[in-house]
C-alpha cells in the first residue's frame, strides 16, 4: 500500500506535466552523458535546472493487521504506526531536507503551500507517516496551513481497490484460500500453528504469520519497512 505522493513544484500544476518534466530532465542528463562519452563537448550540467521532485513513499513500521491469537498488542490497535515507524518517516524527511534544501537549494527551509502538494490515502497510519515525514523535512516550520489531500475509499487508486474494480475482485476471489489448500501447504501450516501454539481452528494462514513476523522484526530494527 502506498502511503502517499509528495510532490514539490515551483512552476507547473501537479499532473501529467510532472511526468513530462521528469522525462525531459532524464533525457537531458542522458544526452549530456552520451555527448561526453563520444568525445564531443559535454553539456555543462550547471545549465540544467531541477524543476520538480515527486517522492512516492510507504508508511513506516506498523503493528500487525491481524495479530496472532496468542499475542498481546500492548495497547496498540491493528495496523497502527509504531514509534519505530514514526522515527523511520522523520528520518526520511531529514534525508529529503538534506537533498533538496541543503545540498540543492530547491525547497524553502520552511514549509510553503505554494511549493508543496501532498497526497495520501485516508488511512490513519499513512496520514501519520506523512506528518512525520513533513516534520523531518521542514523541522516543524511552516508559512501556511499543511493540507494533506485524500480521496474517498471507493475511488482511491493508490492501493488495490476492491470496492471499485470488478476485475480485481474476480481475480482475487478465492486465491488466498486456494493457495492454502495446495498439496503440502496445508500440512506445513498445521505444523507451524502447532509449533507456535495457535489453535488449528483459528483462521491463521502463512500471510498472517509473515505479517506478524515482519512486525516483530521491526521492533528491533531488523527490517526497514513493513508490508501493506
What do these coordinates show?
β3, α3 and β4 form a beta-alpha-beta unit. The chain has a four-stranded mixed sheet with strand order 2-1-3-4, with helices on both faces. The protein contains seven helices and four strands. The chain is elongated, with a radius of gyration of 22 Å. It is α+β, with helices and mostly antiparallel strands.
Task: Give the termini separation.
Answer: 5 Å
Q: Percent of residues in beta strands?
A: 5-15%
Taking all residues together, what is the mean pLDDT? 81
Per DSSP, the total helix count is 7
Q: How much helical structure, as a percent, in the residues?
A: 40-55%
Helix and strand content put the structural class at alpha+beta
* Total number of beta strands: 4
**Poorly predicted residue ranges:** 9-17, 223-228
Strand line-up in the sheet with most strands: 2-1-3-4
What is the molecular shape? elongated
Helix-strand pattern: EHEHEHEHHHH
Radius of gyration: 22 Å
Major beta-sheet overview: 4 strands, mixed
Entry keywords:
alpha+beta, signal, His_PPase_superfam, lysophosphatidic acid phosphatase activity
Task: Please summarize what this structure is.
Pfam families: His_Phos_2. This protein is α+β, with helices and mostly antiparallel strands and 228 residues long.
Topology:
Layout: E1 4-9, H1 16-37, E2 52-57, H2 83-103, E3 116-120, H3 124-138, E4 148-149, H4 166-172, H5 175-180, H6 185-196, H7 206-219
Parallel strand pairs: 3-4
Antiparallel strand pairs: 1-2, 1-3
Helix pairs in contact: 2-3
Amino acid at each position: 500500500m502506498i502511503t502517499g505522493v509528495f510532490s514539490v513544484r515551483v512552476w507547473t500544476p501537479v499532473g501529467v506535466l510532472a511526468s513530462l518534466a521528469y522525462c525531459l530532465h532524464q533525457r537531458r542528463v542522458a544526452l549530456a552523458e552520451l555527448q561526453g562519452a563520444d568525445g564531443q563537448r559535454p553539456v555543462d550540467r550547471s545549465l540544467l535546472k531541477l524543476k520538480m521532485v515527486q517522492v512516492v513513499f510507504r508508511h513506516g513500521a506498523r503493528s500487525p493487521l491481524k495479530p496472532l491469537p496468542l499475542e498481546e498488542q500492548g495497547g496498540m490497535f491493528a495496523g497502527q504506526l509504531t514509534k519505530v515507524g514514526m522515527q523511520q518517516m522523520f528520518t526520511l524527511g531529514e534525508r529529503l531536507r538534506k537533498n533538496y534544501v541543503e545540498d540543492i537549494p530547491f525547497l524553502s527551509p520552511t514549509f510553503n503551500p505554494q511549493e508543496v502538494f501532498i497526497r495520501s490515502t485516508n488511512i490513519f497510519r499513512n496520514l501519520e507517516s506523512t506528518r512525520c515525514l513533513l516534520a523531518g523535512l521542514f523541522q516543524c516550520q511552516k508559512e501556511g496551513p499543511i493540507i494533506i489531500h485524500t480521496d474517498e475509499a471507493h475511488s482511491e487508486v493508490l492501493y488495490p481497490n476492491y470496492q471499485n474494480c470488478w476485475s480485481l475482485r474476480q481475480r482475487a476471489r478465492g486465491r488466498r484460500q486456494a493457495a492454502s489448500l495446495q498439496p503440502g501447504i496445508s500440512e506445513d501450516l498445521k505444523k507451524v500453528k502447532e509449533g507456535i501454539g495457535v489453535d488449528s481452528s483459528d483462521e491463521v494462514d502463512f500471510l498472517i504469520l509473515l505479517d506478524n513476523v515482519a512486525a516483530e522484526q521491526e521492533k528491533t530494527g531488523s527490517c526497514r519497512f513493513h508490508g501493506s
